[in-house]
């Protein structure tokens, strides 16, 4: 059904651009509006002074064959590198192999600390913590307090910005059952009979040689070549609906030239679903707006520091478990691709998990560069005084937060959209408030495009709920898809 106005797509990240490309494949006209000055969304590659930075390091890995095909339709094979994954854990001056291996772990911990870990494990087995409903209780009951505090507590608290005894335990059960550090720790430190398979940690992944943004820059060219438009620096501020017809009819966009209204037969939205609700005109009912206002996000900040190549390391990234440092992970962009760096230097991306508008977020760039430089030097990963340049990249809403009420809130919004504006199609990561990787964000867009082009009737919300996934082999009880903890809701 349409009045010849085509589809408006909000956002030129992986979901928005995939939707555009797929609709054009079906001969459907599209206009993409992107608020930022670059395409790619969280999967962009930022360029400053010829250095290229990835937001968090994007591995191209999928079990969805049509996504894999899409990637290779957009970029020729010679633009992909096949990279080995390597990452280690930094803790109190030592680098631990990941997955841990016994010799390396023992050497790093030292005999004394290793014995303490074993003792603490024994105590936890004899007298487990009473409250195991939270992450801290659950993990320390299984591994002992010392191993828990070295290998789980600090990093988890950095990522989610909250004490580990406030994160629900089912996430730990989920994550730890499936793999991860626990298996690695057990393999390294506990008797052989308790060992579990760790093969899932050994992997290779594809990576576009100029970073993930290259995929989306090229995709934009293809969309434009096929007659679509992609406008950057253009905000969608309002979505107009006709309540009598139960349809969205137009969007208001704002760019440097001012404000205008663009008619639409369909709207595909990859903007945060909370913002989509707030953009509705006439307004959504109070309970839907309240659900939108209750959704939360975790934000992300990278300080990229240019250092001489001698301080490069083979890892793609290093997890920093050291409680004395605020930095959560350190990317080595040169290990992702030699095309991201230049001039006999590499670039290290110190990643800080933050909340938008917290003190760190508001700190001026120059101070952040000085702070990150000092942390890097203190960790002993570079020689003092060797940092030559620094750049700050802020990425708001990097992670949709799963709190106790988020599922209910999403259900309220989703139900209302389906009833009142069924021609508005939420897709992607923040677009659906789901912890989707790029492949699943793209798949939701492909399905939405088919729903528009030939009424395929896909339920886009089933993506990444029941599917087998590379880092999660069993579906979560909460149907949250990826493994993220459920947090306490704001009171
Ligand atoms: C640290 C980190 C590491 C990651 N690593 C991986 C990885 O290794 N592999 C992987 O596959 N995935 C990874 N991901 C996930 C991946 O980044 C996302 O799945 C993907 O970018 C989501 O695509 P999207 O199009 O749904 O949303 P986004 O990428 O968020 O794009 C949405 C776009 O909409 C625009 N927008 C928002 N509001 C408006 C508005 N009002 N008007 C116009 N435009 C608007 C935004 O500016 C943005 O460009 C990672 C994510 C993070 C945070």
UniProtKB/TrEMBL annotation:
Annotated region described as Disordered, given as residue ranges: 470-491
Record-annotated Amine oxidase domain positions: 15-379
Species per Swiss-Prot/TrEMBL record: Micromonospora chersina
GO MF annotations, alphabetized: flavin adenine dinucleotide binding; oxidoreductase activity; UDP-galactopyranose mutase activity
GO annotation, cellular component aspect: cytosol
Lineage of origin: Bacteria, Bacillati, Actinomycetota, Actinomycetes, Micromonosporales
InterPro entries linked: Amino_oxidase (IPR002937), FAD/NAD-bd_sf (IPR036188)
Signal peptide residue numbers: none
Gene3D superfamilies: FAD/NAD(P)-binding domain
Protein name per the record: UDP-galactopyranose mutase
